[in-house]
Design brief:
It is a single chain. With 240 residues, the protein is of the alpha/beta class. The protein has one domain (7-239): Rossmann fold, CATH 3.40.50.720. Helices cover 47% and strands 13% of the residues. A seven-stranded parallel sheet has the order 3-2-1-4-5-6-7, with helices on both faces. Bound molecules: NADPH dihydro-nicotinamide-adenine-dinucleotide phosphate and ligand LV4SOB2L.
Amino acid sequence: MTSRKPIIITGAGQRLGLACAKALIAQGNEVIITYRTERKGVAELKALGAHCIQADFSSVAGVESFVSAILHQYSALGGIIHNASEWLSETEGEDSAVLMEKMWQVHVFAPYRLNLAFEPLLLAGYEVSGYADIIHMTDFVAEKGSDKHIAYAASKAGLANLTHSFSKRFAPQVKVNAIAPSLLMFNNDDDEEYRQKALSKSLLRKSPGEQEGVLAVQYILSSQYMTGRTLSLDGGRHLA
Ligand SMILES: NC(=O)C1=CN([C@@H]2O[C@H](COP(=O)(O)OP(=O)(O)OC[C@H]3O[C@@H](n4cnc5c(N)ncnc54)[C@H](OP(=O)(O)O)[C@@H]3O)[C@@H](O)[C@H]2O)C=CC1
Ligand SMILES: Nc1nc2c(c(=O)[nH]1)N=C([C@H](O)[C@@H](O)CO)CN2
């Protein structure tokens, strides 16, 4: 058996995706990342040997371009981590059709299409190494809804449902799981009032940072007996 074949992480130019990519590279994995925007994190990952592919999943053509790039360069994969995401809210004047399309495209269509397109590569990765995983980054609000991020929450619920369907379709070779954080890390433009309100929503009242998500990814990849499941990283918010 050889070591795990390359792992794709989408949207890994910053924050959680970047932290996951660095951790997996440090553990000796070959990592492929997608990014839209040239960021310092992309340059860091290139320097660490990651294969960095620019990809915008907001259009079908953008998704298909990435599919072609992978199919032309790889014959086996050890995993796909669907991390790419935009946290958009319903704001005054926003075209709700455009908003829902954007959310569905990045959170549901892209993971759906990549999982189907890369099935043969994941199966090949499993045959040679015994490892193949898909991880969907969903969200606490996939289950509970959100009155301010309605289309976002609905699309994350769609992604959560893909976990069930693909875990059945790809068993027993490929494990398919989800990670559902509530608050992992703030954005720089979150003001103090927002931060205090967000912290008060969970029992543990903390924002753990991206390493909490890295730990969850590492657990799932090392598990031999978890599929079709979701790791909830929510500080007890479900009981608050
Ligand atoms: N941060 C948190 O507290 C929480 C996060 N999550 C989930 O965890 C995951 C990681 O969160 P976080 O690190 O904050 O994510 P970010 O908001 O930093 O988004 C990750 C990346 O997604 C990429 N992206 C966005 N839209 C597209 C698109 N249409 N096509 C391709 N790439 C795109 C962006 O790329 P680029 O920068 O290159 O443009 C961005 O860097 C996400 O799925 C998120 O929904 C869930 C709950 C809480
Ligand atoms: N793509 C993103 N999704 C989410 C983010 C984010 O920054 N990018 N942030 C959150 C919040 O932390 C929320 O969970 C708590 O206020 C949710 N999703």
